[in-house]
Design brief:
two-stranded antiparallel ribbon, 356 residues, alpha+beta, 9 strands
C-alpha cells in the first residue's frame, strides 16, 4: 500500500503518537490534553508556537472555561491505541500542580479523576457542560446570511454617547499604544449583540443588553486589529499581567506581548470584566475539542469496513491493491487484520504446544 492524495491519508506527523483531527491539524496543535476515559476524548489542544502556556496558566484557563470543574490531576501521559481511531491515555509521570509556573512542555497529557467523581465535567457524560463556541465574527456572518427577528445586530452600532466617551478616554490603541494617527476605530470588547450567549437559556428575547452598552465594554483599537479581535484570534489575559495571548496566525499583523502599562490602569481602557469575558470566549473558540472522532465516527468506520468486506463472511475481502486500504481508516483497519492474523497464528502455535 502506498500513500495517495485521497482525503484521510496519513501524512508524517511531527508532533504526536496519535492521529490528529482536521481541526487539530488546521490549528497545527502540538499539545493535547485528554480526559482519562476509555476510550479517551480530546478536551483541549494548543499550538504552543502561538499560544504559549505555563502549567499554572493552563490550570487557570481550564477553571475559566469550567468554573465547577471537579478535582482532577493533570499528568504527562502516554497515548495508546484503544480501537480503530480511538485512544486511551495512561499516566507516565507525577501530576503537574497548579502552583507550578514553569512552561508547559509540548506533548500529550491526561486529566485523571481524583477520588470517586464519576461525571465527565467537560461534557462527554454531560453534553451541556461545556461546548466549543464560534467566534463573534462567525456568529455575525451567520446572522447576516440567515437573518431573524431576535438577533440584535443593531447593537453593533455604538450609541453616540458611548462612542464619545471612549474617544475622550482613549487617545491611543488600547492593545498596542499606537497614537491616533495610526487609524484608530472604536471597538466593542464583548459585542452587546452576543450578550445572550453568556446565559443562553432565556434566549435573546429575554436578555438585558443594557449593561453591555457602556464605554467600559469598548476601546479604541488599531483598525488592522479589529477583524482579528472579533474573530477571537487573540485575547487579553487580565490575570497574567494583561498578556496578549495569540490563538491563531495573525499574518503580517504584529502584536505586543502585553497591553502597555499606561493602558491597563483603572482610569484607562475598558473594564476588566469585559476583557475577561472576551478572553474566556477566545478559549472556548480555539482550545476545545478536536478529537479524531469528530472526523471519523463509528458509523463512518463501519461503512468502510463493510465496503472492504470485513463485516460479512459472504463478501470477499477487498484485494490488497484496493485504494481504500490507503485511506486513513483503511490503514487502521489493515493494522487490525494483521494483528488479528498474528494473534490467531500465536494461538495456533500455543494449541500445538499444548497437544504435544
Amino acid at each position: 500500500m502506498t500513500a495517495t492524495s485521497n482525503e484521510g491519508v496519513i501524512d508524517e506527523d511531527r508532533y504526536c503518537t496519535h492521529i490528529r483531527s482536521e481541526r487539530s491539524r488546521a490549528l497545527d496543535r502540538d499539545t493535547f490534553i485528554f480526559w482519562s476515559s476509555a476510550p479517551s476524548h480530546l478536551l483541549i489542544g494548543l499550538n504552543q508556537r502561538l499560544t504559549r502556556a505555563t502549567i499554572s496558566g493552563l490550570h487557570r484557563w481550564m477553571r475559566i472555561m469550567a468554573p465547577s470543574m471537579p478535582d482532577a490531576e493533570l499528568r504527562p501521559a502516554a497515548v495508546r491505541k484503544f480501537d480503530v481511531l480511538r485512544y486511551t491515555v495512561v499516566p507516565r509521570a507525577d501530576a503537574l500542580t497548579a502552583l507550578d509556573t514553569s512552561p508547559l512542555p509540548s506533548g500529550d497529557y491526561g486529566l485523571f479523576r481524583v477520588g470517586d467523581y464519576e461525571r465527565d465535567f467537560f461534557g462527554y457524560a454531560e453534553p451541556v457542560a461545556l461546548d466549543r463556541e464560534a467566534s463573534f465574527e462567525r456568529y455575525l456572518q451567520l446572522s447576516k446570511k440567515h437573518p431573524d427577528s431576535v438577533t440584535r445586530l443593531d447593537l453593533y452600532t455604538f450609541p453616540p454617547s458611548v462612542e464619545q466617551s471612549v474617544r475622550l478616554r482613549d487617545n491611543v490603541c488600547f492593545i498596542t499604544g499606537a497614537p491616533p494617527d495610526a487609524e484608530l476605530d472604536p471597538s466593542w470588547i464583548f459585542p452587546p449583540t452576543w450578550a445572550h450567549l453568556l446565559d443562553p437559556w432565556p434566549g435573546p428575547e429575554a436578555c438585558d443588553y443594557e449593561p453591555f452598552l457602556t464605554a467600559s465594554n469598548a476601546c479604541m483599537m488599531r483598525s488592522d486589529l479589529l477583524s482579528l479581535f472579533h474573530a477571537n484570534a487573540f485575547g487579553i489575559d487580565v490575570d497574567d499581567d494583561f498578556r496578549v495571548v495569540v490563538f491563531r496566525d495573525t499574518g503580517s499583523v504584529t502584536l505586543p506581548s502585553h497591553v502597555p502599562k499606561s493602558q491597563n490602569s483603572a482610569s484607562a481602557g475598558p473594564g476588566e470584566r469585559f476583557l475577561r469575558e472576551h478572553f474566556r470566549w477566545c478559549l472556548l473558540v480555539n482550545t476545545l475539542e478536536g478529537d479524531i472522532t469528530e472526523d471519523y465516527d463509528s458509523n463512518r468506520v463501519v461503512r468502510v469496513m463493510e465496503g472492504l468486506g470485513m463485516c460479512r463472511g459472504d463478501i470477499p475481502l477487498a484485494p490488497i491493491d484496493d485504494e481504500r486500504w490507503d485511506s486513513l481508516i483503511g490503514k487502521e483497519l489493515w493494522e487490525v487484520l494483521i494483528l488479528d492474523a498474528f494473534r490467531d497464528a500465536v494461538n495456533a502455535i500455543d494449541d500445538d504446544s499444548t497437544r504435544c
